[in-house]
Every structure is written in structure tokens, then in C-alpha cells.
Automatic annotation (TrEMBL):
Keyword tRNA processing applies: no
Protein's recorded name: C-type cytochrome
Transmembrane domains' residue ranges: 12-31
Pfam families, per the entry: Cytochrom_C
Domain Cytochrome c, residue spans: 53-152, 186-291
Species this protein is from: Chitinophaga chungangae
Keywords for the protein's UniProt record, in alphabetical order: Heme, Iron, Membrane, Metal-binding, Transmembrane, Transmembrane helix
Cross-referenced InterPro entries: Cyt_c-like_dom, Cyt_c-like_dom_sf, Cytochrome_c-type_DH
Key word Heme present: yes
Amino acid sequence: MLRKILKWTGGIIGVLVALILIFYFTMYMMVNNRKSKTYNVEVRMIDIPSDSASVAEGAHIYATKGCADCHGDDLSGKIFIDDDALGKLSAANLTFGKGGRPGNYSDREWLMAMRHGLKANGKPLLVMPSYEFYKMSDHDLANLIAYLKSVPSVDHELPKPKLGPLGIVLSGLGKLPLIPAEKIDHQYKPGEVVKRGPTREYGQYLSMSCTGCHQPHLKGGPNPVPGGTPARDITAAGNVGKWSLSQFTAVLRSGKTPDGRQLKNEDMPWKMTANYTDEELQALYLYLKTL
Ligand code: HEC
Ligand code: HEC
């Protein structure tokens, strides 16, 4: 009798292990296929300026789009997720130092990365959130690239992004934004300039940077990093609907909410929103209040 039971449980466990292995193998193959796909896109060239006013504007964009959270303040790149299960994810060294851009990295390659989420060879960049950036106006993106090209070179070599087993399964299930190129409308043609000012329209344009975590509808959702704090509803239906402009500004500059919570920068990147100008925060506020 005991023998029979053992035989049966052994059999069931064997079948389960086999099923898990098949599932994992399927996910692995799927993710690998998506990673190795070559995209054929037409890159629309724009002129990249190099004067100091443009570079200064570009530096402001770098500081307000969260690039530094992954690429670092000196642009030399960093490992921003290091977890046995999820993987080791490093953001590239964007400078022309050792381990960074090669000397012949062209404007076309900057545009491939920012507008299409692709490397020069047409393969997708991993986890680089280009879907938040590709709608940037020609003017703003040109200034950003002008800044990226102007920073001092830093030697810093980083390992290539590598997924762990959980990272592979979550990517296979679409729970991790592994391949931004899949979420980009590659035919989209951004405008030349977007008019600045304390307006709803400008707020809508700026809110692109919030959609990766708060979702395109801005009603919040799960954190893009599995296990992280969920992103809250920031439309008028949430707390933003109750806060005055000065309260909203204080939250985005200090992470302290009127109801006494201290938001952690790792959850809500308020050190990034602290760099927004008064006008930019006002525009965002006006837009969010209408949702
Ligand atoms: C969530 C983290 C994250 C943020 C935020 C982020 N990046 Fe990246 N970026 C990455 C990763 C990861 C890679 C490397 C991807 C790879 O090698 O597959 C990358 C690659 C790049 C590349 C391409 C380098 C190459 O190999 O051709 C450029 C250019 C770049 N990022 C610029 C930016 C700029 C500018 C911003 C802000 C507007 C930004 N990134 C924001 C994670 C990020
Ligand atoms: C990297 C992900 C991420 C990005 C990008 C991001 N947020 Fe958040 N945000 C969060 C998370 C997560 C929370 C919830 C934190 C908590 O509850 O402790 C949050 C909370 C907030 C809150 C407080 C809401 C409340 O009811 O307490 C506001 C306001 C907010 N975000 C506005 C913005 C705006 C505006 C942008 C774009 C400029 C933005 N966030 C970009 C992740 C993000």
C-alpha cells in the first residue's frame, strides 16, 4: 500500500516538474524571440544644436524625465535592479568614455534609442522606457540630445542587462516592460515645438513622464517593478482632486503629502519632480484636475 502511494506521489511530482519545465522553456523561447527581433523603422532626422542655451534646456529635460534614476547624475550608467530572481538590469553609460558610446555614435543612433527604443542594429533596447519619450517634440528632443552629447566622458563599464528566471516569466506574461519598442507607434510624428505655459495642453504633454507608472489613463496601477508600491490615482478622482496647487507643488517637491505621509523617492520619484519649474507643475496640476 505504502509503496503504491509513494509511486503515485512520485509520479504526480514528476509530471508537475515536467509541466513547470515546459512552461519555463516556453516563456524563455518567447522572450528570446521578442528580444532578437529586428525592427525596420524609418528614422526621421532632425538637426541637433550645440549652443549653450540649447544644452542648458536639454539638461533640464534630463533632470525632469527621470533619466538620472537609471543612468546616474553624471550619465555614466548604473545597475538599477540587482536581484537573483528578477535579474541584473543596468542602464548604459551614455557618455563617450570607456564602456559608453563609441566615438562614431551618430545622431541617428540617439534618435533610434529615444524615438524607437532600438539599438543601431534595429534590435530592441531592454527596459529603457522610450515609450515615455518618443512623443517629445523635435525641439525638446534635439536639446536633450545636444545635452547628452556635451557631457564630460566618464569611464564606466557595465554588464549587459540580464534577466533572472522570475524576470523571464514576468516578461513572458507581459508583467514587466521588457521591450519598450513593442509599445511604441513607430509611425508617430511628433510636432516641432510644444507651446510652453501654465496650460492644460502643456500639462498633458508633460504627463507623458508619469504614464509609465501611473498608466496612460493616470488612474494608477501596479508598480512596474514587481513587488513595488502600487502607483496611485493622480486624476481628479484621487487626492489631487482635493489638493490646492500649492499643496500639489509641495508633494512633488518634497514628497510630503497634506495628510502627513512621506512618499519614498524609490516609489514616487519626487526628487525628479522637484526639478520641475513652477510653470511646469502648474500645467500638470491643471491637466490632472480635468481628468
Ligand atoms: C528605467 C530605467 C531607465 C530610464 C528612466 C532611462 N533609461 Fe535609458 N536605458 C536604460 C537601459 C536599461 C538601457 C540599456 C538597454 C539595453 O542595452 O538593452 C538604456 C539605454 C539608453 C540609450 C541607448 C544606448 C545604446 O546602447 O544605444 C540611450 C540613448 C538612453 N538610454 C537615454 C536615456 C535618456 C535620455 C533617458 C531620459 C529621457 C533615459 N535613457 C531614461 C534604462 C533607462
Ligand atoms: C517610477 C514610477 C513613477 C513615476 C514615473 C511617477 N510616479 Fe507618481 N507615484 C508613484 C507611486 C508608486 C506612488 C504611490 C506612492 C505611495 O503611495 O507611497 C506615486 C504617488 C504620486 C502622487 C501622490 C498621490 C497620493 O494620492 O498620495 C502624486 C501627486 C504623483 N505620484 C504624481 C506624479 C506625477 C505628476 C508624475 C509625472 C510627472 C509621476 N507621479 C510620476 C510612482 C511614480
